[in-house]
Design goal:
The complex is a heterodimer of chains A (110) and B (113). Chain A has strands at residues 4-7, 10-14, 19-25, 29-37, 43-49, 52-56, 59-64, 69-74, 83-91, 98-100, 104-109. Chain A is mainly β and 110 residues long. In chain A, the strands form 2 sheets. In chain A, strands 2, 4, 5, 9, 10 and 11 form a 6-stranded mixed beta sheet that branches. Chain A has a 5-stranded antiparallel beta sheet with strand order 1-3-8-7-6, with no helix packed on it. In chain A, strand 6 and strand 7 (59-64) form a beta hairpin. The termini of chain A are far apart. With 113 residues, chain B is mainly β. Chain B contains no helices and 11 strands. Classes of the chains: A mainly beta (110), B mainly beta (113).
């Protein structure tokens, strides 16, 4: 079993819909990252969380440390949000590295 | 400047070639990373440099040889690669704290013939 699990693996929605992507992890962490990767490769860091909630534009990320769970929400989704969203954690006992989930491929249709 | 640059963008090489990938950042970050990413998979960590010293090597074959000439530059030297090494190679950097945000470059798409 992976230390970081994301769901769903694939998500297709219509423009304007509210999107939720989930991330669960099974280890103690010092931080959780949400990353976005568009076709063509480049990865952009969206959020780094260690507690609570963060908001940036139409994106909201939350984390529940006790439940070992984080969600990424997109409000008023747009076709340009189509990308792979990756959850990654920094394990407390581990070395200085990110442990990645498998990613969620999001497609927003116009 | 919050950019990590990588060159070249694309590279095609034969199994007997020697080539190098380059990564540069001017954010004053002291940690730099090489990742390998196969299609439809998450990135896999290869190497971590901290203060220009190799701190993590994830059991990467010796045909990949990293080098950190100074705090802004990171190279990955390639020699005698195999076709299965074809992938997107991503560089990233962060300030020294372990949990800090990593800034990724656009990647080099490598094809080994």
């Amino acid at each position: 079993k992976n230390e970081v699990e994301q769901s769903p693996q694939n998500l297709t929605a219509q423009e304007g819909e509210f999107i939720t992507i989930n991330c669960s992890y099974s280890v103690g962490i010092s931080a959780l990252h949400w990353l976005q990767q568009h076709p063509g490769g480049g990865i952009v860091s969206l959020f780094m969380l260690s507690s609570g909630k963060k908001k940036h534009g139409r994106l909201i990320a939350t984390i529940n440390i006790q439940e070992k769970h984080s969600s990424l929400h997109i409000t008023a989704s747009h076709p340009r949000d189509s990308a792979v969203y990756i959850c990654a954690v920094v394990i407390i006992q581990g070395a200085q590295k990110l442990v990645f989930g498998q990613g969620t491929r999001l497609t927003i249709n116009p | 400047d919050t950019e990590v640059t990588q060159t070249p963008k694309h590279l095609v090489m034969g199994m007997t070639n020697k080539k190098s990938l380059k990564c540069e950042q001017h954010m004053g970050h002291r940690a730099m990373y090489w990742y390998k990413q196969k299609a439809k998979k998450p990135p896999e960590l290869m190497f971590v440099y901290s203060y220009e010293k190799l701190s993590i090597n994830e059991s990467v074959p010796s045909r990949f040889s990293p080098e950190c000439p100074n705090s802004s530059l990171l190279n990955l030297h390639l020699h005698a690669l195999q076709p299965e090494d074809s992938a997107l190679y991503l560089c990233a950097s962060s300030s020294q704290t372990r949990a800090d945000t990593q800034y990724f470059g656009p990647g080099t798409r490598l094809t080994v013939l």
